């Protein structure tokens, strides 16, 4: 557990803000996603200060990490821009009242409808990721009589040290144009289009990255590429370095504070500016796009312990009322988490258990071989660092309801996503005429 002012143990209980975790579980039920507003605000402020320390820039929140209207409002109030990757995410930030000029639309295969929606909303930048998108966007912008600002996603061919599913800039990635291949020609093509304005580049090298030297290498490669463009008379006004900073999940990971996370942002922005100056380039406006590092540690999932099954000498299962429908990350990536029995927070974590979900498959685990206090039916289990890519990747598998989300802000706590009912689960079910 990476403790902080709003996540701590007192009198044998785990606290989130002013609330005992057990109190939240009792009031709102389990499974329950809890998000800590103060932590999110603190990270946002630290990141915005960091990106602007050595020049001008912006922090765009990667909505894919956690998409809810209330947290988008919170991020916007702290000066964040938004990275959206679908019409749905665009709709969400519109509903949160975000300034559309501060929205970047990503995606390697935006649909014609999504392109229409982005243009109609008047978003700041499309981040172009395919030849097909150039054609469509130029044509559709032309039909509307507008010139759309665009960034181009480039692949610097840097391989970050993370797991393969989230590695994005390795040579085999499905994302971006290769800086050593067709990227320059693609940009020249864009620059010649009547309804597109080339504004800059976007790079995202992966997610859950601790080794920051990968960012440095990417910056070196991309600023070299910018120099090549400059030689052809093309200026890069904006450089978006993506997101991807690794967070604390288990005690094998560093325990950072928001301020320490912000050093990463500060260093990326500084290096990009220094390298640009060194290579005689115009100072680009620097954008960073963190998701996980803003909301990941802000989230704690609360469960009620149900069945406990011990296979002596083999494995002890502690089953909870959640599972892969609300946290699919073990099933997908064998992700690791740390956990605590919230009502036994001062007891030693002297057992090693596997936390199982309630779905009908053996791979439905929250984590394997985790240290935990002695668990009994009815205990409240807290799993930490679940704010990113849990709620946003949840499903109704086995027709389990996606848990509600409660936002805690000091001594206030309230729903930001309400509980799903059985009726909600069947809302879009219908029976065709001929079967009636
Ligand atoms: N920008 C772009 C273009 C991205 O593709 C991503 C993440 C981000 C920013 C934000 O990265 P972050 O700061 O959150 O690492 N589902 C996976 C993570 C997938 C990340 C996808 N792209 C997981 O649960 O670990």
Keywords:
8-stranded parallel beta barrel, single chain, alpha/beta, binds ligand LLP, TIM Barrel, 29% helix, globular, Lyase, Ornithine Decarboxylase, Chain A, domain 1, 9-stranded mixed β-sheet, 2 domains, 21 strands, 436 residues, 12 helices
Outline the structure in words.
α2 packs parallel to α9 and α5 crosses α6. The radius of gyration is 23 Å and the shape is globular. The chain has two domains: 152 residues, Lyase, Ornithine Decarboxylase, Chain A, domain 1; 259 residues, TIM Barrel. By secondary structure, the protein is an alpha/beta fold. Strands 4, 14, 15, 16, 17, 18, 19, 20 and 21 form a nine-stranded mixed beta sheet that branches. Strands 5-6-7-8-9-11-12-13 form an eight-stranded parallel barrel, surrounded by six helices. The chain starts with 6 loop residues before the first strand and ends in an 11-residue tail after the last helix. The longest helix is centred in the middle third of the chain and has 21 residues. The mean pLDDT is 96. The protein has twelve helices and 21 strands.
